[in-house]
Fold this sequence. Notes:
Blueprint: H1 14-22, E1 37-38, E2 41-42, E3 44-45, H2 58-72, H3 76-79, H4 87-99, E4 106-109, H5 112-123, E5 132-136, H6 141-153, H7 158-161, E6 162-165, H8 176-186, E7 190-196, H9 208-217, E8 221-225, H10 237-240, E9 244-248, E10 261-265, H11 312-328, H12 330-351, E11 356-358, E12 371-375, H13 381-388, E13 391-392, E14 394-396, E15 400-403, H14 412-427
Parallel strand pairs: 3-13, 5-6, 5-7, 7-8, 8-9
Antiparallel strand pairs: 1-2, 4-10, 9-10, 11-12, 12-15, 14-15
Amino acid sequence: MITFAFISKFMFSHEDSLQKDRNDSLASFRSQFHFPRDAQGSLLYFCGNSLGLQPIQTKEYVMQELDDWSEFGVEGHLEAERPWVRYHEFLTEPMAAAVGALPHELVVMNTLTVNLHLMMVSFYRPTKSRHKILIEYSAFPSDRYAVESQIRFHGFDPKESLILLTPKDQNEYVSWENIKEVLESHGEEIALVLIGSVNYYTGQAYPIKKITDLAHKYGCKVGFDLAHGAGNLLLDLHNDAPDFAVWCSYKYLNSGPGSLAGCFVHEKHADDYEIPRFAGWWGHNKVDRFKMSPQMKLMRGAEGWQLSNPPILPMACMLSSLQLFSKAGMPALRKKSLELSEYLIQLLQSLNHPSIRILTPQSEEERGSQVSIQIRGGDKRIYNELKNIRIIADWREPDVIRVAPVPLYNSFSDVYFFYDALKNIIQSK
Length: 429
């Protein structure tokens, strides 16, 4: 929860937002995306934390693969413009740059929860004395379901083996003191710490390096779900050194609905071929993979966790988006993201309305693009009114509107229009 004295850093006018857009070095990227439309034109879109917009060039990338398929058939694995047999390698360097990883620490494969299970097979190795998993209290439900199923698979009871990282003082904010206290109290019992880098509900960003360092001090393995962090935060996975991380790509990374996921395995595990894992043929050494040996020879690094040959069409979507990230650069995107979210927070605070409570921390280190707005005493009617005036945001029960001004395609004018619309709706009630 934000409890700070309101200090205006901005002139709150439409003209001021237009001036900010004129000074925006990333403004040209907006024209590289398709916006949802109705009969009146483009809608105002603030839902990149749920599904990113489609880059205009994505269709061209997908059509290239369809054309190569029609022209080459099976020979497209070697003869396509981007040979399919190594297509995932075209994604490695731009994705590694987006999350601060070394190329051999990263692979694009599967979907998020599949990768999470694969990582827990390898890094959740419970014993009688160390069998607990620490997750955030409001983790995305899919993560909790996966974690509880892994606990049961190993013969333990989630009621005994699951620790929830909870806030204090009846609010949604989890402080570093909360985190430190739990690890100091239970660190010797915890086999795995698994935290979402940005909480999907509140938008709070957690300190990856501090959590990793402290958890490792107590002998815990550490993983992060970067579903709301990849393409949003300025990540540094290699130097922060969690054991693993997983993320989807259809939110801030704009790869399309249900698209592929990323997986990071720190280089300290790159040459440890004794780590338990579920294996598939695409994890076999690529030099002699097609000799079809019955004896598996794992590849070094994250590629050794691959199961199946890559699905080309969703990878084409991802490559299209990642090339835009490469052009923009994550430092510049992060800078604009903070400016957009701060602008939105300041505008909302200027309303000084008793029903509005901002759940997302104001501290730059503790937020990404998303701002979670609680409408106290409200219901979904305000969200529906926003939708009726052509604004796409996101509603979370019981009373939270999530708004994510994304730096690749949202503008300061977008943010101002959202504030002005919300102000008019609230003042009319």
